[in-house]
TrEMBL record:
Pfam families: AAA_33, DcpS_C, zf-C2HE. Residues 71-88, 148-158, 457-476, 543-560 have a biased composition (Low complexity). Signal peptide: none annotated. It comes from the Eukaryota. Residues 125-135 have a biased composition (Acidic residues). Residues 54-184, 457-577 are annotated as: Disordered. It is found in: Nucleus. Coiled coil: none annotated. GO terms for cellular component: nucleus. Residues 525-542 have a biased composition (Gly residues). Residues 634-741 form the HIT domain. This is HIT domain-containing protein.
Amino acid sequence: MALRVGNKSSPSCAALTVLQQGESAVLHNGDAFSLICTRPDLAIQVHILPAAQGPPADAATREGTAAGYMPAGREGGAAVAAPPGSAPSTSHNSSPERVVAPTTQPSQQSSRHTEASGSYVTGDGDLDGLSDEGADSGRSGGAGPGPGSLASPVSTGKGQRGKRRGPGAGGKDTARGVGNNKPPVQGLPPVLLLFAGLPGSGKSTFSRSLQDASTVSWVHVNQDAINKGKPGKREQCVAALRAALAEGSCCIIDRCHLDASQRATFLELAAECHVAAHCVALAIPAQACAGRVAARTDHPGGVQGDNNRAVVFRMAKQQDSKGWPPTAAEGFTSVMDCFTDSDANAAVRAWAAYGAAAAAGGSGAAAALTTATAVGGSSEGAKPVGAAQGTAEAQAAPTLAMWQAYVAKRKPLAAATAITAFFKPAAAKAAAGATGTGAVPGVKAMAAGKAPAASAATEAGPQQAPAAGGSQVGAARSAPMAGAKAEPGSAVTGARQRGAESPPAAEQRPAKRPATAQPSVGVAPHGGGTGAPAGKGAGSPGSGHAAKPNAVPGSQQSQGNSGGGSASGTGAASPSPGGGANAFAVLMKGSRQAAAAAAGAKPSPTGVARATLGGADVDKRFKLDSPWAQALRKAAQDPEGSQQQVLHKDEEVVMIMDAFPKARSHALVIARDPALRSIADLRAEHLPLLEHMRQVALDWIAKRKEQVPGTAAFKLGFHAVPSMCQLHLHVISQDFDSPALKNKKHWNTFTTEFFRPLDLVLRELEGHGKLTLISEAEEKRFEGQELRCHACGLAQKSIPALKSHIVACDAVKCLPGL
DNA sequence: GTTCTAGAAC
DNA sequence: GTTCTAGAAC
């Protein structure tokens, strides 16, 4: 089936390419709607889905709030109950596996999982997951507490709002796991819930919240306290879990689990016990985790205090190479990605619902189906997926459905006309094989370089196994039960098997993209790939920016706006089945206008959409009218007249060296459009320009690295509050070795959230149509933050001390970046 | 954005 | 003595 849409460089065209190769893709057309395309059996289906509603993810993490989840039901509790039609679940194959892994959390989590400090090794119980070398180096770093500090007598039960958990009525004293005094529910299959996340990501808090909120028996096993309240061995955890599962209790295994091999241990256990293994990945930004670790005083493993900040940052840098993020392909029935505390809250609520119906005497399976129906769409043309009713997987369906509803709600906006998800439908391979349209080389690579693949599927009929339904952009990713693999040859199995092959290698993921402390949101699964590989040309289809719009306050004007030509109307509308060419027509009809309209942007007389905050206001806020602030504007207009070396010049941009470089290599790519005075003027229509700016920067970086061997990694980004008029992209090496870097503000404007990485700017523009400016309070906070090494996180007392540290810091040499 | 200055803090 | 901060001026 031949469909021609757009041009070769358009994401939609790329999607069609995928379709024609037997793949499926999910397009998100700005704010207006999402387009789901599939061809599981070579019969292309196109569905226009209403734009998901709801506010963007909260800014809790952006603000660096401490862990501590709100009680279940507080934060839109009712809303997550999957209002009919509100969640455009599209499911078709049961296990759309993400092909692409995240970046992200961007930045904070990248690189190899090298050494961990002694505190981490013992404290978080990953002793068996670390090399001796790593452990040793960590210990030598002195970042962690000594063995003596591990003597915290209390296990995971401590701090539970005053309640010391004891053995539950149902025999919760499983080894040394801590139960919640609730009996196992007859007939409710236990599940194993594996947590993964950095120290300080909130794993234990999650456990306590879940144990409190749930009506069924949950046993919390934490290696930090498995040995009579002290850190123990993995084997002890396994034994405790085995016992608890045998008793019918649901179990939580609370370890960092950044390493896939460590997770495998517990997946094997789940298989052995014939229970489903689910994962909750707490991908909270490392900066926030470090802050929590620094502040806490009651960690049983002693991973606490200011000295352990560095532990978090080190682990964050290392986790990619160890198998982060967790994927359903590993064997998890689902993976929930939590990027914010709100996400975690929702996940708690979702898991607290597990077994609720059964506990109340109802039918878990019926509840599952009911919930699934609520979030599912019609099933025209979709084949039912093998339901696993009666299994833990089926029982978990309401949980997953709630999560999917939450994800759909929290992520109303995805990348404008960008492909955000790929998966191979089960039938595609077979069909492709039958018709000779199998995937061609490059498809997987393309997908691997793209944004994080959200769970995507086509239709989730009421008769389907709810747990199998992937959400439109859900962060819950389904996979087969660890202990009950789907039948060979089934649709489910096919998808899963391919999924298992799909996760890109760490080096393929965009983890090396500019790191950032941007703790916003998270919408896209796993932090979303920040897009195409750094070297990818601007013409690459769907630049692949992760569908992870920043959770920025004040950007809710787009909420509820599914218009822009979408025939789907309001968010409550049901997905439009079929659609076919019409859908594509709508897709291509003014997607940009739709996005702009949704973002509330109004075209100016010059055709440039102005910020909601008027131009004059922006200028006043940014102080762009000062005479001294016009240097870059003049350079844009008259590059030759600039005193700075012109590195590049074309009709759209001028690149010059920064007059006061804050690193050995520090240049600016300046937009020449006079209408672009600052980032406040950016709109979705400027995405191509930004891609061009990126490419110009990348080209220069490549040359620079040849000229200056040993140059540190580069990052690209904008200052949240620019001082100089005219939009300019900073291109800066991470050595920060420069006499012009003199004070705290200089440092923090490049190493805190004041620095807005290009990737995140692109993402926000894709998702929201414009950028949300930080408040003056945030501006001051960022500028005034204490000095910390951007690589290891250690605090420094002064700029001279910081500079000395940077020179000696090994972590600087391993910094991710371009 | 910068430099310069003065005073405070270490 | 060194460093930081704030304000003024550019």
